[in-house]
Amino acid sequence: MAPHFLIRGGRQLSGAVRVGGMKNAALPILFALLLVRDEVVLENLPPVTDIETTLQILCQMGAELTRISPTAIRINTKNADPDAVPLNLTTELRASAYLLGAGLGRFGRATTGLPGGCDFGARPLDQHFRLLEALGAVIAPEENLLCASAPGGLRGAKLRLDFPSVGATVNGILAAALAEGTTIISGAAREPHIVDLANFLNACGAQIAGAGTSTIRIDGVSRLHGTRYRIIPDMIEAGTYLCAVCGTGGGLRLDDICPAHLDPVLLPLRKMGAEIAVSESHLTAKRTGALYGTVLETAPYPGFPTDMQPQFAPLLCLSRGGGRIYERVWNSRFQYTAELERMGGRILPGKDFADFPGGDRLTGARVRATDLRGGAALVIAGLCAEGMTELYDIRHIERGYPQLVEKLTAIGAEIACGND
Ligand code: EPU
Questions:
Q1: pLDDT tens per residue across span 193-211
Q2: Which ligand 1 atom is nearest residue 164's CA?
Q3: I need a labelling partner for 319 at 20 to 30 A (CA). Which of 68, 151, 228, 258 fits?
Q4: What is the DSSP string of 105-139?
């Protein structure tokens, strides 16, 4: 039958976790490989299904791939064919929208299926299209397909985004890297994964300045060359383990992290009672006293990340005093709360927020992951709950958390993967 996690809650977590490479940095870099007709070695790729799907897309397009280890590849897209895009795979993930920018940049045209990914209500692509059109692309959305071409070639342009969209900023950088002239994107996303994409492309010879600020300047170059590159650590995976230990109590050491990226998450965790000591590439976190409530408000980086709000929800349920989460990035990202309620969490929905009265006792239940981070929230709830939780639809979680069962088991959790 369906694969699921069996979690017996109530155990404190203690030990060390090595954090993997960041999925949302690796995805744009993998699509950026199409711009580089040369051999590239990528290290610290997280072994998760979204990365596997992307590698399959590239291979079916004709990329030559050698696996060096579970987290490192050697890849060359010099023979990639724009007409060989496996459309059925592109609908499985959001990042397939990056085929537009990368395809236009490399081939002057691109076709992809409608990008999939987590369901947070409307996920428009208007900002992507505005940027690509400003560069000279013509986008023709057909039924279940996105087709783009650049009849007169791509030329640098100036454009201000209405919202600092991660995906639109990525697509703009991909399309502009090999375009003629200079592109300036203002109102750009500032996430660490944008910086990682720019660093990767610059390592291949691109001229990109200002990534990490809201104005990015891309001076188009005529060709990119191969390189060896290491993906940055995943701040969301790190934050998820921090929420887990904050919920169960105990102490954890996180290795291979970039502490500066974690600041927006460490702040609320400290308010809630976690003691956290940070050094250059690792941190230790413990909670031995009470768990307090707080108010969270998601925002683009460097604000509190929307990809961390679900993981805080079980903590707010358990906390003294409770709290509130405002969701300001997505218009529908609270689906997971219905599942948390099955476990005894009390959640009062508002227009763009959810209230948590706090002081709840969580108990094991049969629940399902509604999306990637909502699924992670239910894993945390299961670890904190009394009794057994059966968590279904774990394919959502496997898209973004490498070796979750192994990593949690190593720090004392009772979690197994069932298949009946
Ligand atoms: N938006 C528009 N028009 C656009 C693009 C976005 O209105 O053309 C709006 C969206 O509707 C949303 C907001 O802008 O309200 C943010 O969207 P953004 O484009 O920044 O998100 P994304 O690129 O589709 C990435 C991550 C998400 C993460 C968001 C926000 C990847 C593959 N996905 O999505 O990650 O939530 O940025 O930080 O990088 C996850 O990993 O669990 C995940 C969902």
A1: 999 999 999 999 999 999 9
A2: 20
A3: 258
A4: HHHSEEEEEPP-----S----HHHHHHHHHTT-EE
